[in-house]
Amino acid sequence: MAYDKNNIFAKIMRGEIPCKKLYEDEFAFAFEDIAPAAPVHVLVVPKGEYKSFDDFSANAPAPLMKGFFAAVQAVAVKMGLADNGYRIISNHGADASQTVHHFHIHILGGRSLGGLLP
Ligand code: 5GP
Question: Which of 33, 34, 38, 82 has its CB 3.0 to 4.6 Å from that of 108, i.e. a possible disulfide?
Answer without folding.
Answer: 38
